[in-house]
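As promised in the previous annual report, we have extended the structural survey to additional targets. Below is the entry for Ribose-5-phosphate isomerase.
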Amino acid sequence: MGAIEEVKGWLGSSESSNTKSSQHATGERVNDVEAMRSFVHTDPAVDYVFDGSDESTKLCKRRSDRLDCITLGLPTAEVLAQMQKFDFYCALAQNVNSTEITCKKIS
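The corresponding structure token record, generated without further manual editing, is:
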């Protein structure tokens, strides 16, 4: 499944019938979304990059001298959706061999 189909599938499903979605997993998801919100809102002017899988995503702040990263227990499709909710524009890298997504705050 490609990234676009993954995003469409995630956005199109209002509630998952997957047996993994227990109340405990939902609590972890909320914590990861809050951690992500806090991480992004502390410095919205820098670029953010993320890459991951269906199970976890590494989200990084790209600073001139270093990367500051956190690992989230969220699929990349959900991280993309959350970044867009936080008013970021996100795009794939120009390098066709790269799977990372870069996000910039919309002014």
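DSSP finds three helices and five strands in the chain. Residues 45-107 form one domain. These points will be discussed at the next consortium meeting with the crystallography subgroup.
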